[in-house]
Design a protein that fits this description.
Strand content: 5-15%
Shape: elongated
Distance between the termini: 74 Å
Strand order of the largest sheet: 2-1-3-4-5-10
Radius of gyration: 23 Å
Structural class: alpha/beta
Order of helices and strands: HHHEHEHHEHEEHEHEHEEHEE
Number of strands: 11
Number of helices: 11
Largest sheet: 6 strands, parallel
Amino acid sequence: MAQKKKVRLSDIADKLGISTVTVSKALSDKEGVGDELRLQIKEIAQSLGYKTKSAFSGTSGAAFRSTGNIGILIPSRFFSPNVSYYWHIFNILSTELMNRGYYSIMELLSDDDEKNCLLPRMLNDKKVDGLIILGQTNDRYLEELNNVYSSFILFDFYSAKLPFDSVSNDNYFCSYLMTNYVISQGHKKIRFVGNFGATTSISDRFMGFQKAMLENHIACPAEEIIDDRDEHGNFITLKLPAGKNMPTAFVCNCDETAAKLINELEEKGYKVPEDISVTGFDNYLPQQNSPVELTTVYIKPEDSTKIAADLIINKITGQPYIKGRHLVSGSLVIRDSVKSL
């Protein structure tokens, strides 16, 4: 006997010409749906044989009641005291989810909780329908999470070992474009600033840097990388070369690091870009104290947050979606921090 096709929220929505969000609200008795339409939705769901899901995928238990919330889990080390790119992304992502009928709940993941593989409280308390992990977490934590809860996606990073659904920037190609631009301005002594092993974003940006250098027959030994953070992602003091080893240009993995580098160079008596050129990545530096406008990479946050919002909602509501890694590209923003030699 052929296996009966699983009924999805989208099947119910198509019958009435409404959104899956409306169907989800009606079946979970949330506000925002009229009584007559709610009754219609429930009758069609029953006639189609729709079955509710359990709160934790892969486990059995009481029927799942939608909360209308999406959790956003951010490792606490990505929240710096002065500038937080992830706080900026969280706000844009929350707006995208709100536009689709969902509220956001943010929770910070401490280093200890990640090390001990403790589930976020919002999952234990069943406060959310799905989870977006914003910022790099280790594979062991993701594996332990996936053992009990699979309704999550990764945002701004991916796992090289595990095939989780993710949305990330095209860091490799954008860094390649930036490095090629620096080289086109006559620079050959160029150093990359960023810890290769800290995040997948930084490693991809270094690989793009390395590709451009190698294609232009310029040496780029790995030992010349200047770390801006430790392996856990915590920022550290930059150890800059001196004398003859000082390059004419630095390609930094992010704008925050570029701003710190410019300030340190100025303290040592170098002027940017007159003496040394510097580039960033992200086009986000709200509290910039640098005397020069930074040449950087801009990947529009709304482009990636829209994909992430659609991806997690399709996943939790049972709609078809493209599994795996989703890449979002961007462009160069040429300003004043790179000098043509």
